[in-house]
Amino acid sequence: MNFRKSTYDDVDKILEIIEKAKAEFKKSGLDQWQNGYPNRQVIENDVKLGISYVLENVEKNSVESKSKIIGTIVLSLEKEMSYSKIEGKWITDDDYMVIHRLAVDTDVKNKGIATKILEFSEKVCLEKKILSLKTDTHEDNEPMKKLLEKNGFCYCGVIYLDKEPDVGEKRIAYEKIIKIPHKLL
Prior knowledge:
Elements: E1 2-5, H1 11-27, H2 40-49, E2 52-60, E3 65-76, E4 87-88, E5 97-104, H3 113-127, E6 132-138, H4 142-150, E7 154-160, E8 170-177
Helix pairs in contact: 1-2
């Protein structure tokens, strides 16, 4: 597998993965991502800012190698204003990286791909000398809450979004402190 920054050539595939996730949310009665967000403009801006990443499955044979994007995530160092007002408490007040728009192609769901993306995200944090990952999710997004908790994220409280189109929407906040591998000490 290959984890890399997204390019403009990846936008259509990222949107396809996100649209599949939107359909899954709708089917399960979850109203997350049901209001036109995220859309092409958002994804293209993520790529432009250099904060969009993809996970590719690389298949190699004796003649060639072929890759297919199977997941996507946004990792941003930009401070979230909505995170400054939490009903609860963050683990740290240190610098942090924020996870947004994590999605896995439904064709490869339940195969540990989201966990792999989170593991790669931790490596990006270490490269940038950031030891805290923060994120939020819809209060009814049980699969995401379970994924985060399974991967060492701690529930920190509740925040309310401050950006369109979801101003005032309640979200469940999580944080994970990245452990520095011994070889880096």
